[in-house]
Amino acid sequence: MTLFTYNLPEDWAVATDALAGRVILVTGAYGCLGGAVAHAVAQAGATVVITGRRKRQLEQIYNAMLTRGLPAPVIHPLDLPTATPDDYAALIQAVQSDLGRLDGLVHAAAHFSGLTPLAMHDPASWLQTMHVNVSAPFALTQACLPLLEAARDSAVVFVLDNPKLVSRAHWGAYGVSKAALERFAAILHQEHDEGTLRVHALLPSPMRSALRRLAYAGEDADQQTPPNATAVAAAWLLTPQGRAARGHILDLRWRASTDPVLDSKSHEAS
Questions:
Q1: Mean pLDDT score of the chain, rounded to an integer?
Q2: What is the mean pLDDT of residues 227-233?
Q3: Among candidates 114, 142, 117, 145, which has minimal Cα distance to 128?
Q4: Which H or E element spans position 214?
Q5: Which in 40, 71, 210, 212 has the greatest CB count within 10 A?
Q6: pLDDT band at 264 (very low <50, low <70, confident <90, very high)
Q7: Which residues contact 86 (CB under 8 A, 6 or more apart)?
Q8: For residues 159 and 183, what is the distance between their CA atoms, to the nearest angstrom?
């Protein structure tokens, strides 16, 4: 790994107003983790901009958040596999016009097509995985930088995966993309290590998700941490308290079984 790891402090918590007044953009918002992050940052008081390919599913997230009494999110469909620089520019222009600021960006979207030997890896699938997992986060982050740098305190959160696991045989483009994403986060941190923009990486514990089910079809999903737990940690990184983990990987892999906030019994999926 190119970044040092960081462990959550014993007394960590996310207050209900910790992100009040802030605007947070979340990619892959109708995915397992993205939806949970949208809920978690809204619970902390933020206005959430939710993005994803399908407007209908974004509307379902919107309705679910209203049902829970959370602030209404802002929907902005964005198809990462086909998005152009103009699409990213249009998104940021809309955020600036409608909300006037951007304080955080969480890259929760990810593409994984299954375990495949390199000799059998479909080239089109390889390119799509690398684009969604690496090129799209670069393009979106670059488009967001002017607004993020204008904020008094802002953060970008990249979601990684267990490097010891995804560097093994058959993890293909997904494994390569996560290594590249970490290197991207490290370079971005070096370029913003003294400004108001913070760069963070997040390494979840084995998480109950569609990606996990695809990789481990026979696994008992109930034994894995629900995405809500990881989402709360992502929200913590976006708060001022997250400054302590600036330029680090927040490693949740060994904390989930002992932390009452991260423990799967304390956070059932909504």
A1: 90
A2: 92
A3: 114
A4: helix 210-215
A5: 40
A6: very low
A7: none
A8: 12
Residues 6+ apart with CB under 8 A from 66: 72
Kindly write down the DSSP assignment for every residue of 223-260, as one continuous string.
Answer: GSBPHHHHHHHHHHHHSGGGGGGTTSEEE-TTTTTT-T
pLDDT: is 259 or 102 the higher one?
102
Residue type, 145: L
Q: Is the pTM of this model over 0.70?
A: yes
Q: What is the DSSP letter of 132?
A: I
Helix H segments across 121-171? 123-130, 136-150, 163-166
Half-sphere exposure for 248 (CA within 13 Å, toward CB)? 15
Whole-Å CA distances, 163 to 73, 105, 108, 184, 205: 33, 23, 17, 15, 12
Residue 56, sorted as left (phi over 0), alpha (psi -120 to 50) or beta, turns out to be alpha
At residue 218, what is the residue type?
A: G
Q: Which residues of 114-145 are buried (b: 16+ CB within 10 A; e: fewer)?
A: ebbeeeeeeeebbebbbbbbbbbbebbbebbb
Q: Look-up: residue for tokens 């998005």?
A: 83
The amino acid present at 127, given as its one-letter code, is L
Please write the tens of the pLDDT for every residue from 52-62. Answer: 988 999 999 99
- What the block records as the tokens of 194 is 């003294």
